[in-house]
Amino acid sequence: MQKNIRKSAIKFVHKHNLNKKNLTAANLREIIEKYNFGIVDYLPKAENEPDTVTLLKKAQATEFYQYTKGFTYSSQEDKLVFICTDMSADDTVEVLLHEIGHIVLGHLDSEGIISNTSTQQECEAFYFSQYVQERCRNSGRIKLIKAGSLVLAAFLLICTAAVILRYATIPREAVTEDGKTIVRVGGIGMDAFMQPHCYWTAGGEVFHLWQDCQHLRNSSTIYVGPREKSGRTACCKTCYKKFCERYGN
Q: Does 127 share its domain with 17?
């Protein structure tokens, strides 16, 4: 299932020519409109415009909207994505991608709020959002990998078997991002970036869902890779709370 979600995410990125620079809320809003969905901005804890209140009532979400960052409503008359305006730019992008994930992955019922989807569908939309962001974040690196593939092939032809074996068994790759060392575990290359992943530190007892988790800010080295590679079975409480607030539990 996750492999199909990854393929859908990659196809989505290619279809809309997304990359690290143009993965913005403004572009995602335009994409949502291309799927024939309108966008309704709302404030969770303040008085909204009369038109917004009318649409919230129509979606039967007059109480629900106060506890979520975004949701999607579909009926025979309206197709609407509701987005909370009280978020940072990065959070807005993530929530928009999550709602797009519901649309792209076919989670729409004939009528109603998509918040009524199953836990599995919420996880699928979450992974769709993460795959798209990872793909865009590493778009430059992926292009370099493709551009250098011929050179690498020529190099392998002249390498000895011992050298080939040595390079084939390297299990991790370290890069530097914002002054931190990010160690990618579980493989080298494009596939490693596309797998479902989490973050952890050498001395930590839990895994994290977001690299910018407040409990990772003072860590100089962060590992990222599939959860089974982390050796941790428990999720960071802060990350889990953030996940539940955005996507439901």
A: yes
